[in-house]
Specification:
This protein is an alpha/beta fold. The chain contains 13 helices and 11 strands. Helix 5 packs parallel to helix 6 and helix 9 crosses helix 12. The protein starts with a strand and ends with a helix. It binds nicotinamide-adenine-dinucleotide.
């Protein structure tokens, strides 16, 4: 399955399917990327067999490779610098190409390195997690973490090509599959009720790697992200809908201290539950749609904040919600739903309002 993302700077293909890596060299040529040199940066957890198969498709003399242990701690300028050093040392030109083979972190870091090396060299992204295939590989946001927080240093830089080979997902831990599913579900909730119904019916097939359903869910999800990004590349307005549930989610992750007790996808599921509950309490969200969403989240087992938080955590959660980049004044900005596929932007609420809401959920 293919789709084309059209942006102000360039148009690029997103290819989704099985065994795409086995013809990566042909795909790159077909997409008119005529590079003389390639640097392949890959995540240490991607199975060696997959990496070997990718490397074997290139002329040995034309490739450099670098294996990196990617995590939120190594998502920093030091890692970017280690990539830039190779590009410089091997005298890469703008026409040459950096290939990322890894999850969202690897893609964000490589995308950023590509954007600043000689003001931009070709960047090909091979996302290897479900989250990166359905979300982060599309849209051109790149970046690294800094002392002041997550993704604080970065750029908008579109890839030249995205190849999402679902074979990568076979080795992905269950929790990481759920992370990706959270974003797929988010895309359905902001844009497509029929897709939401498809997910409700088939989520267990998707999570248990049924190729046909997985591929369809990835494709649909990418299509939604593409449509949003094409309308608002630099997140001036409509792209903010992609943050549904994320103001709560980021605060939940930060409050727990970014540990394995609650990973990003789980936080997003809890964040969406919170946004949906809040929308209902404020009489913004239609009752029947509210019920459908909550029923689905219950099936996924992500409706209970008490498993993760105590009432003493509420002030900390509010503190982090107030740090959100979307806030303009002292109020907290939330993306909410009027119904499924009917998001609303720019709704701001006073801190006390959200505090008393959370007190009803966490006790
Ligand atoms: N640029 C964007 O628009 C955007 C959007 C959403 C999220 N993000 C960023 O993406 C990151 C999260 O991405 P992620 O969920 O892919 O996390 P990740 O890159 O950390 O990958 C998750 C885990 O899976 C491992 N892994 C990767 N591929 C694997 C494979 N095929 N088999 C087994 N293990 C594998 C990784 O080593 C890691 O431990 C965050 O840093 C977030 O800020 C960016």
């Amino acid at each position: 399955m293919n789709l084309k993302v059209k942006t102000n700077i360039n148009n690029y293909s997103v290819l989704i399917g099985k065994n795409l890596c086995s013809k990566i060299n042909k795909i790159i040529l077909k997409e008119r990327i005529h590079s003389q040199k390639f640097l392949i940066v890959y995540d240490s957890k991607v199975p060696a067999k997959m990496i070997k198969s990718i490397l074997s498709k290139f002329d040995k003399k034309k490739i450099e490779k670098k294996k990196i242990v990617f995590n939120e701690k190594s998502k920093n300028l030091k890692t970017v610098n280690s990539i830039l050093k190779i590009l410089e040392k091997q005298n890469f030109s703008r026409n040459d190409c950096l290939i990322s083979v890894g999850g969202g972190i690897c893609g964000d870091v490589c995308g950023f390195a590509s954007s600043i090396f000689k003001r931009g060299l070709n960047f090909v992204n091979l996302p290897t997690t479900l989250l990166s295939q359905v979300d982060s590989a599309i849209g051109g946001k790149t970046g690294v973490n800094s002392l002041s927080g997550k993704n604080m240093i970065g750029s908008f830089y579109q890839p030249s090509l995205v190849i999402s080979d679902i074979n990568f997902l076979k080795s992905l831990p269950k929790k990481e599959m759920l992370c990706g599913y959270a974003e797929i579900l988010k895309h359905s909730l902001i844009k497509n009720k029929i897709f939401f119904k498809f997910l409700k019916k088939n989520f267990s097939k998707i999570l248990s790697h049924n190729d046909k359903f997985l591929e369809r869910a990835i494709y649909k999800s990418c299509l939604i992200k593409k449509e949003v990004v094409e309308k608002d590349e630099k997140e001036k307005n409509i792209r903010k809908v992609l943050n549904l549930g994320h103001t709560f989610a980021h605060a939940y992750e930060a409050t727990i201290g970014y540990n394995k007790g609650l990973n990003h996808g789980e936080a997003v599921l809890l964040g969406m539950m919170s946004a949906v509950e809040f929308g209902r309490q404020k009489n913004i969200l239609k009752k029947s749609d509210y019920k459908q969403i909550i029923d689905h989240l219950k099936k996924l087992n992500y409706c209970n904040l008490n498993k993760y938080f105590k009432s003493k955590d509420i002030s900390k959660i509010i503190f982090y919600m107030k740090q959100d980049k979307k806030n303009k004044d002292s109020k907290i900005n939330l993306i909410l739903l009027k119904g499924i596929a009917k998001p609303i932007l720019n709704k701001s609420f006073r801190e006390n309002n959200i505090k008393s809401f959370l007190k009803n959920l966490i006790y």
